[in-house]
Amino acid sequence: MNASVAIQILPNVTAREEKRVAVDAVIAYIRSSGVRYEVGPFETVMEGDYDQLMDIVKNCVQVCVRAGAPSVMGYVKISYDPNGAWSMEDKVGKYRLAEQEEFV
Known about the structure:
Blueprint: E1 3-11, H1 16-33, E2 36-39, E3 44-48, H2 50-66, E4 72-80, H3 88-102
Antiparallel strand pairs: 1-3, 1-4, 2-3
């Protein structure tokens, strides 16, 4: 794994449910890609091969339009290291553990 990418897709639709349908379609597409991913309240983070992730980003916009959005805004954050990028677990794993311990 040499990259992690965070993507936020904002479909240009007015009805709340239309937005949910379009975003759900994008998340389903990401899931079908087979990359490791995590959905958050504002963005979805993926990790894997840089070129594969960039193809997924490109396709996410098209999936959103096919799901009914006349246009879309997409915001992307990229972390790339040809020698191995930090994983999601590397970045936030210790906080997840702390949260689990709080609820025990």
